[in-house]
Amino acid sequence: MSNHITSDPPSRRTPEPVHPEHAAAPGVHRHLNLIAGQWVPPSGGAYYSIRNPARPGECLGEFANSTAADVAAAVGAAAGAASAWADTPAPQRGAILSRLAQLLDDSRDELARIVTLEQGKALGEAAGEVGRAAAEARFMAGEAARPVGSTYPSERAGLSCQTVAEPLGVVATISPWNFPVVTPVRKIAPALAWGNTVVFKPAMLTPWSAVYLMHLLDRAGLPPGVVNLITGSGSVAGEALIHDARVGGISFTGSTDVGRRIYEGAARRLARVQLELGGKNPAVVFDCEDLDGAAREIVAAAFLCSGQRCTAISRVIVSDDQAEALAGRIVDYVSRIKVGDGLDPETTMGPLVSHGQLRSVAQYVRDGIASGCPTLAGGRALTEDPERDGYYHAPTVFDRVPADSPLALEEIFGPVLPILRVHSFEDAIAIANSTRYGLAASLFTSRLGYVHDFSRRVQAGMIHINHGTASQAHVPFGGVKESGQGAYSIGHTASEFYTNVKAVYVRW
Predict the structure, then answer these.
(1) Which CATH fold would you assign to the domain 68-277+483-504?
(2) Are strands 33-35 and 38-40 parallel, antiparallel or unpaired?
(3) Which residues are annotated as catalytic?
């Protein structure tokens, strides 16, 4: 296994290198890095291109393939801006975030189209993502002016004791390709609210949304150097960012294996980390009176973003006596999914993000079929020539999947839903806890006793009762086990990552 830091496993990355001596192709826009408020070319002169996963022959643009020197310049710009930004009154920082939220709302249609073009998700999903980003930015605008710190009663007369929160300093934010707007905002907005400066590296597959977001921050009035954008590979730009001693903290969302390598690198210099990693999220269905409602919630949570979501419901654990009825309803809702180009208003599920991701998902499906698991829906890629016709895979449902199957244990990150049948609620709890992940978990039941037992015993950072795995813009978000490390994001808990606590004693 490579020791390089990437935001996506190598099999999922398909950007094409552009030779430094070649100019951008006719009609193809070349995008630069943003450092200290200026758009600058990469020091090595190299670029890479990205393509539309629905129509891979369509080049969407060329982006800087940054070097370690570019990263050093961006970190230097962020370090140079840190003192002035930390001294900016918090309500003024919040006002900039409020303007950002409004600009996101105003730009929803245009930005959603960019997300659909580079990531593939249905246009309605993309618009919802932009709206969610605006909501999180708006919440963090308020956080900037809320109290941070505490006053303690003193043991001695004439002495006061209190804690204050100070910015961490320069923060590196590394985001994934599946949510290229909301995840960066989720990292950048709290960093700014609590007085930090940022170097932002988006995933190689989805840098266009990141460039657009930088323009919105500029229009919101953010001073130069407070947020800097570096595009390029994780193995070069990511590595340099992780190991720069001037970076006080690293916020990363992506695969568990990559997160582990980031954690190891950060630990060598005692840098703080916030890691949002993989998941294999169960939906347990036991003594549920509303099976139709459960199936509707499960299918929505399983196939949103073509299943390329860390919080996707990725396995169903159901009692034997309700399995047939639930499976039938799940298949019925899956049959209503319309797979197609995300720009088509009738599409409800777009392509996978890359040919590599399609190959990975298709291999899991072939292995599941070969192992004898009944296929209730899907089971195949939808195009004979993906590089010409797009990276489409049918939403797939397997039944009677053994608990030790890779379908039940591994994060597939695609539109594949295995159904596992169990005899008892105890078995359901044991299987729910049987993976290395612990991000989200859902329970669909009509029995209050099961609600209490599930909430207490299931090893997950987020528990959902009688609904899918959707989070809200002000509620802490994170996981346990190999699904996360460090402070939860979203909401006030993010301050635990973005600030240092200082205790102050004063004798009067």
Answers:
(1) Aldehyde Dehydrogenase; Chain A, domain 1 (3.40.605)
(2) antiparallel
(3) 276, 310
How many other CB atoms are there within 10 angstroms of residue 23's CB atom? 11
Q: Are 143 and 359 in contact (CB under 8 A)?
A: no
Give 495: exposed, middle or buried? Use CB within 10 Å, 0-12, 13-18, 19+. middle
Question: To which residue do tokens 């690293």 refer?
Answer: 250
For 291-306, the DSSP string reads HHHHHHHHHHHHHGGG
Burial 150-164, CB ≥16 within 10 A → b, else e: eeeeeeeeeeeeeee
Domain spans, the chain: 68-277+483-504, 281-473
Handedness of CA 119, 316, 11, 482 (dihedral sign): positive
Write the CB contacts of 47 (distance below 8 Å, at least 6 apart in sequence).
17, 18, 20, 24, 30, 62, 63, 64, 65
What is the four-CA torsion angle of 133, 135, 136, 138, rounded to 10 degrees?
Answer: 120
Rounded Cα distance, 492 and 476, in Å: 7
Residue 228, beta-bridge partner list: 199
Indicate the CATH number of 281-473 among 3.40.190.10, 3.20.20.60, 3.40.309.10, 3.40.30.10. 3.40.309.10
Q: Which two tokens stand for residue 471?
A: 């989070």
Tokens 């919802």, residue located? 128
Sign of torsion over alpha carbons 310, 311, 312, 314 = positive
Closest CA to 216 of 106, 70, 354, 358: 106
Contact 280, 381 (CB under 8 A): no
Backbone angles phi, psi at 33, to 5 degrees: -85, 155
Per-position pLDDT tens, the chain of length 508 = 233 333 343 333 446 665 444 566 677 899 999 999 999 999 999 999 999 999 999 999 999 999 999 999 999 999 999 999 999 999 999 999 999 999 999 999 999 999 999 999 999 999 999 999 999 999 999 999 998 899 999 999 999 999 999 999 999 999 999 999 999 999 999 999 999 999 999 999 999 999 999 999 999 999 999 999 999 999 999 999 999 999 999 999 999 999 999 999 999 999 999 999 999 999 999 999 999 999 999 999 999 999 999 999 999 999 999 999 999 999 999 999 999 999 999 999 999 999 999 999 999 999 999 999 999 999 999 999 999 999 999 999 999 999 999 999 999 999 999 999 999 999 999 999 999 999 999 999 999 999 999 999 999 999 999 999 999 999 999 999 999 999 999 999 999 999 999 999 999 8
Question: Quick one: DSSP state of residue 12?
Answer: G
**Closest C-alpha to 302, from 63, 473, 468:** 468
